[in-house]
Amino acid sequence: MTNHHGDFIWYELITPDADGARDFYQKVVGWEIEAAPSGPIDYRMISSANGAVAGLMPLTPEMQTGGARAAWLGYVSVDDVDAMARSITDGGGAVHMAPWDIPGVGRIAFVADPQGALFYVMKPTPPANAPDATSLSFSYDMPRPGHCAWNELASADPTAALHFYGQRFGWVKDGEMDMGPLGTYQFLRHAGRAPDGSPPGHGMIGAVMPKMAHMPVSAWTYYFRVPDIDVAVAAITADGGSIVQPPTEIPGGDFSMVGVDPQGAVFALVGSRV
Questions:
Q1: Which of 7, 36, 191, 236 could form a disulfide bond with 3, CB atoms 3.0-4.6 angstroms apart?
Q2: Which domains, ranges and CATH numbers included, belong to the chain?
Q3: CB-CB contact of 6 with 69 (8 Å)
Q4: Is the pLDDT of residue 240 over 60?
């Protein structure tokens, strides 16, 4: 595949109610979500108009007994999953699920950074009929409805997190914004995609900010693009979700918001006001 080491290449919703989550997100984001799995395991594809962008995995009772809760998780592309797992533990992070192979999909590991934020690392297997396929789950180059537009880390130690991710994925700080009592919002650029001297905004993948006091742990939040932020907000409240942060204007004229779906997973949206 043509994605770079350090790219976000996939997103996954784990939920105790697959049918309820399917109904909610189809109305809120406009995705098409499989009603039933197409393969041997219960894993359902989430698609935009451009193809699959994420997956939905039901949580079994056993998973929930073990502590798993509804959440959105991101996948970062790496050149070598086993080497990255070792690097993560050497850097103070944790490997919660050791590297394993999913036939026809790739090799993955479920990990956490030193502050406890969870994510996957993955070396994908290219489709046999498309060896140069590129994941567009995270849209670098243009606004694409239904795709992730921003990856935001709320960390108990933003400085340490910047160092950790920078050493392993080539992400670098590219500017900051003062949020007053909430601290400093530090923008992240993928240096592998956009070296120093690139045009402003090129290679931007998201930001790191201080974890707010009410958050139990450091965590990633993923912002998916919708065509009309107000229509999406209306759908959230009408279909059992809740609003944590109402639409707020961001640089460039779009609006972003944060919500919680009916099953308890935190998600975020970005879009225009039509």
A1: 7
A2: 8-124 (3.10.180.10), 148-271 (3.10.180.10)
A3: no
A4: yes
Give mean pLDDT, residues 233-237. Answer: 98
* H-run or E-run covering 258: strand 255-260
Burial of 200: CB neighbours in 10 Å, binned 0-12, 13-18, 19+: exposed
Element (H, E) at 29: none
pTM for the full predicted model: 0.95
What's the CA gap between 166 and 139, in Å, rounded?
20
The predicted-structure confidence for 69-114, as pLDDT tens digits, reads as follows 999 999 999 999 999 999 999 999 999 999 999 998 999 999 999 9
Spatial contact of 72 and 29, defined as CB atoms under 8 Å apart:
no
The amino acid at 234: A
- In one-letter notation, the amino acid at residue 138 is F
Does residue 1 carry a pLDDT above 60?
Answer: no
Q: What contacts 175, CB < 8 A, 6 or more positions away?
A: 186, 187
Considering the chain, what is the average pLDDT of its residues? 94
DSSP state for residue 182 in the 8-state scheme? G
